[in-house]
Amino acid sequence: MGRKKVTVVGAGHVGATTGLAIANKGLADIVLTDIIERMPQGKALDMMEATPLMGRDAEIIGTNNYVDTQGSDIVVITAGLARKPGMSRDDLLFKNAEIIGGVVDEVTKHSPNSIIIMVTNPLDVMAYLAYKKSGFPRERVIGMAGVLDSARFRTFIAMELGVSVDNTHAFVLGGHGDSMVPLPRYSTVAGVPITELMSEEQVNRIVQRTRDGGAEIVSLLGTGSAYFAPAWSVAQMVEAILLDRKEILPCAAFLQGEYGVENAYVGVPVQLGAGGMEKVFEIDLSDDERTAFEDSVAEVKDSIAKLDL
Ligand code: APR
Predict the structure, then answer these.
(1) CATH number of the structural domain spanning residue 100
(2) Same domain, yes or no, for 125 and 216?
(3) Is the domain of 183 the same as that of 303?
(4) Residue 96 Cα, ligand 1 centroid: separation in angstroms?
(5) Which of 198, 52, 182, 27 shows the shortest CA–CA distance to 117?
(6) Residue where one domain finishes, among candidates 143, 163, 191
(7) Do 230 and 300 share a structural domain?
(8) What residues does 75 pair with on adjacent strands?
(9) Which residue range forms the structural domain that includes residue 87?
(10) Less CB within 10 Å around the terminal CB: N or C of the chain?
């Protein structure tokens, strides 16, 4: 049996860095594909030439042809446009839906047994689109959002309290956007809820910073959006799946009644293993948390409705 195969569609900032993170962890052979000619080939070769330094053995190739992606175990989708000045969120939604629709057709054709990890924004809607278009079971179409949002939350907790990031744990639920729901009660340092370690003002401040995490990076970069933390978030999901770790992580999953939600992709804690999204975990929410969660779900459903699938 050879090594596992992971395809990353879109070899831009997030896609290429995801390839690097997966290679660095030694998880699989990697195929980078993009519509731009020669660029994925160049990035893949550069990355392959870094493998002796990482001490990892992996074949990393770049391509413009889906034939090379044949039989992938996991396909990470990062293809898409970033929002440009003058472009509304809806313009972006329709443009990326067109791109993702085409990509998913190729993925289902060439890797019918793969697990799709969606990264392209607007995340929850693109994950829904991939689920509907692919016809894959919900276990095999998962959105990356919560791992990133909770990594940001963990970073801010560690910064605020001066503790190791290793001691932090955080949960962020709901849609991937302004309405996301960080859960301080379930966010801990060495097992102790942060609500017992910080003032309400401190908690509220880092919750807000987490919600604005993507925008904070965008405004600093000037052009483009975050890619280091997003890429490492994808790599953590890939690792949980390929190593069958049964790890519980917040991901966007298709809900079928869990949390009282039907027919939408929403961020919830799930178990990731060889089968993909193996289980949705339902945790108790307080009244306030439930209200915030429901508001977030309503926002996601509005966006999904616009696609008219
Ligand atoms: N097939 C393959 N690749 C495509 C396609 C397509 N149909 N359309 C566009 N691409 C490629 C672009 O050529 C580009 O190289 O997708 C890549 C996107 O890369 P960037 O523009 O660098 O964007 P990035 O920062 O990587 O973000 C990608 O991830 O986090 C999300 O919001 C982000 O939706 C965005 C996505």
Answers:
(1) 3.40.50.720
(2) no
(3) yes
(4) 9
(5) 27
(6) 143
(7) yes
(8) 7, 116
(9) 5-143
(10) N
Q: Residue 130 Cα, ligand 1 centroid: separation in angstroms?
A: 16
- What residues flank ligand 1, with Cβ below 6 Å? 9-15, 34-36, 78-80, 82, 99, 102-103, 119-121, 224-225, 227, 230
Q: Best substitution site from 38, 75, 225, 233 to test ligand 1's pocket, by max atoms within 8 Å of Cβ? A: 225
- 9 burial (CB, 10 Å; 0-12 / 13-18 / 19+) is buried
Whether 32 and 87 share a structural domain: yes
pLDDT in tens, 73-101: 999 999 999 777 777 778 889 999 999 99
**How many Å apart are CA 305 and CA 3, to the nearest integer?**
40
Q: Under a CB-based contact definition with an 8 Å cutoff, are residues 79 and 15 in contact?
A: yes
Question: 45 CA to middle of ligand 1, Å?
Answer: 19
Nearest-5° Cα angle at 62, 222 to 10: 40
pLDDT digits (tens, 9 = 90+) for 36-58: 999 999 999 999 999 999 999 99
Reported as a single tens digit per residue, the pLDDT across 139-179 is 999 999 999 999 999 999 999 999 999 999 999 999 888 88
Same domain, 157 and 299: yes
Residue of 12, 8, 24 lying closest to 75 (CA atoms):
8
